[in-house]
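Summary for the steering committee. The consortium agreed at its last meeting that each partner would contribute one worked example illustrating the joint modelling workflow. Our contribution is presented below. We chose a case with several input lines so that the handling of multiple components could be demonstrated. No manual editing was applied between input and output; the record is shown as generated.
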Amino acid sequence: MAEAVPSAYGPAEALEQTLGDPLVDSNPLSFRSTVEHDEREERPDLTALDAAGLGRHYVPAALDGALASHEALFWLLRSVGRRDVTAATSHAVSLPAAVLAWHAGTPAQQARVAEILLGGGQLSIAFHEQEHGNDFMATEVAAEPTATGFSLRGEKWVVANARRSALLVVLARTAAEGGARGFSLVLVDKARIDPSGMEFLERFKTLGVRGQDIDGVRFSDLALPPDALLGAPGSGFELSLKCSQVSRTLSLGPLVGALDTALRSSVAFLDARRLYGEPALAIPAVRAAVVDAFLDILLVECATLACTRAIHAAPDRLVTWAPAGKAFVTETAESALHDLSVLLGARFYLRDAWWQGIFQKIVRDAPLTRVSHFGGVVSLAHLGAALPALYERTAAAADAAGASLAPVFDLGRPLDPADGTRLRLVPHGADPLLLALRTAHERLESGALASETEPVILLGIRSEVARLRTESDALRAFLETLRAPHGPGHGRAPEMLTAARRHAALFAGTAALLFWLESRGGLDDFGKAGAWLHLALRRVRQRLQPALEVRPVEEDTSVSARVMDLFHRDRWFSLLAPPLAARGSRR
Amino acid sequence: MNAAERLELALGDPSSGGVIAFARMLELDELEAYPEAECRALDALGLNAHYVPQALGGRLTAFPELLALVRVVARRDLTVAIAHAKSFLAAAPVWIAGSDAQRRQLASLLLAGDQAALCLTERDHGSDLQDLDTTATSVGGSYVLSGEKWLINNATRGRALVVLARTASAAGPRSASLFLVDTQAPSGGAIEPTAKLKTAGIRGADISGARFRGAVVPVDARIGPEGHGLEIVLKGLFVTRSLIGALSLGAADTGLRVVLEFARSRRIRGQPVTQLPHARAILAEAFADLLACEVLAQTAARALHVVPEQASVLSAVAKLIVPTSVDASLRRLAVVLGARHYLREGAQGVFQKLARDAALVALFDGSTVVNLSLLALQLPRLAAPRSVDAAVAARGPALFDGAQDLPAFDASRLALVSRGRDDVLEALPLAIRALPAGSALRPRVDSIATALTADALALATVAPESPELFALAERHACFVAAAACVHSWLANRGAGDAFLADEAWVVAAVSGLLTRAGIPTPVPPACRETLALRLESLADAHRSFSLFPIPLAARG
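What follows is the complete predicted structure of the assembly.
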């Protein structure tokens, strides 16, 4: 199975063929055109994505769409994101609202949302307010009941696509006193309102995604029909928190795709560059940095793959997995971009040189994922609040208590349909992923593994797993010390965010380990061999516990050879390494 | 009132107007327009004279003063600061190695308001200056320059170009010579600027290139002997790398100020964001990191006068620590600003500009990697253990005490390598002895000493150009910076101010540097709080974020 392509990649592969090589200027969403749109602050041309039917993948099959697998959808977003983060986010802007509708909408509401999406229309969510940022409990926009439905009043801020979208999902106060049940979601369907009650404020100028419409919107006693309410009255927070577990996972797709381009453009530069009389890639420190960026991508891939598959196979775990994934991916992406910028030197800073200046655009676009809807710090705060109980229960659980994670981590298994009713607001029981880390050493002793794996690699993996387990024990002890002196407010101490960050790294490392254990049979020779896993686990552990140590030369060499191989063969920088549109391919 | 304080007041308050107003600078950045009026205003205030040594009619006497002046401009805008101060970058090698005539020639140009540009890099060679394509061919009594320099600050506007060109056929350390070229002097060939490059930050700056098409320059345009170009350039870079931290420090001041103001005004669940422990920690630690960078920049600038023989070490340490530390601080501060860090408008719109601009400083004058390599090359000798000699002890006060007068700069004492000498770390045992009993610095300084011993052993096992060697070089730089902070605290704690006397800032600064060195060291909560309170009181008093704060121009 040397060249197995995951079935979830199918739609993305078709999209790759449709869009062609982004280095060819005339192709849709070519680097040249996306950089030019960014310069002019124009929305990227999304017609090719619409023509390819991308929006159908946002709509469940039961509503005549093509969304069956979120893993497939993630690959699609990754494929668009490697060309242009702005195009991907401008198109996928509909997803958070769509996820809410599929989760909580009435049949009529779902049918309307599906009609919009299948007709090429878009949706927005309007949550933020200028004075309150992520403090949604302070939301001022209010929906007051009237004889004919609701009256919506107030101002929302930094709303993506407000002007273009056919429908907005608005978080509004429905109980004057506020509180956990004081807010609801209302649908503002532009086809069903008097437009005079809704006004758009001047478009925001942003650092990155300059082509994306980000507006303010003001509601002046806008009359809404009685069926504008999405979900039960007072369920606004609960729905947002649950659905964000799905939408914030999907929001990482464009960023993960952009990392591929960041590394690919850097490798292309280094491959051609001679420094001090030798090829730049012959310099060991340069090669090591390339390997590290690739390992970051593999870790990010494993973390996001775990979350996207969990939407189907373990939705009850997403309450901690999704924020761990989001925090790990956004922070790792930004640090990887920073590390790569050092390799690119001055070229990382130029807006029209080297690969049409795409790198600097990615650097500016990337933070959007961190600051947008349920971003990095919010994710860390959510996670931090949940961790003490999660670690305590996991410590108390029997080793065998965890449900099997094979449905998530065995890539060969077809996914069950997504079941939103299993999403949770607070985590329950022990975390099977932490349990799997705790018991992984037993699986790593298996004879089959020993016969198929180079002893030095297996030894390396075992040793790193043992150290990650120690880290997880240390984290539990640390969380315990935090409980006592700070009392019930402990969740907000800065140390809590640090703890959450450390957990997020353990999450990504363990996800990588579990994919290897569960899916080895379906991986190609490189994936099976496990050198990548040893180095990836080592990288996670070094983040938790920095140490000066010599890199394992042979494994480093095999991974850097893999990077060059994927680069030359036009394959994704990925564990699964599916094919990209061929170099030079025109649409 | 010193020169920097005078300049600060003369420039006015940037948030409400003044000579270099944030709002105007944002506009120019959007338009990619060069800040003409602002640069002329700086000339009118005589800043250009500070780039020229006093002996040549200028006002440059002490490098710390120049550092402070550029910092004043940089807190307003990096495009302006870079566009203006880049003349000094080009001038430094001329001051160091130029003939009297060359020095006078350049001095009169700069004093008249002309600009100079240093033309080193080429499109295909980046930081590798030993293998240039631009040639200077000796023909009769002249040189003929051919080739193209790329990514050059002020290449289009600079009247004086200081050009590094190949004079030997074989690549290598003696392959190039340096030339002072007046673009307005008659020439047998053409020198033409190349198109402005589009950059992610300082979008208004003149970053372009120069194409030489057989330009004929007289033989006396050559600076220093033939083949010595690289050596002269390096020595000039030792000076500018020691000072370039001024750009980052200015950006850090404004970045921190913008975020602090926002955090104080923004309320979440009834309390200001500054009271949220996470945000408060980020602000306090960003302030501590800024102070560490200030100390390091000050030390490097003072060292040019006190021990120029060691400039190869301290300039590399300052260049590789200060810009990257400020970049990292700005990335953390952006989190406190939330969505506002992403907006190119509004009261916080200046933040995204300065963050984009500041990211370029790490690339200037030799990138972080170049400086790491330079340090790595010297590491074996630097790591060898030494006992403290009397000369090191005697130089301590001049190096670290801000109140001490500095000897005149003597360029002839600059050396390409420091032969293993580094006062900052060599004097660490003296500092350890001087620490008060019970100081929280003690365990931190002890861990530096332990790590230095361990790293010296590790050094013997790592390969050249290996990532491990680079990691050791970065750690070493962190230790030098941390030691400079300790010395600076000891030397200045009696300067009158309770904050200077308290060890809170230095404990936090050293902790941050140890963490960066891969030795995770928490900042004690009490130190954090002392820093946060100081930060708030400096903001209230409208003073610069510094160990030695200066009053800022009044608002309105």
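Chain A has a mean pLDDT of 93. Chain A touches chain B through 58 residues (CB under 8 Å).
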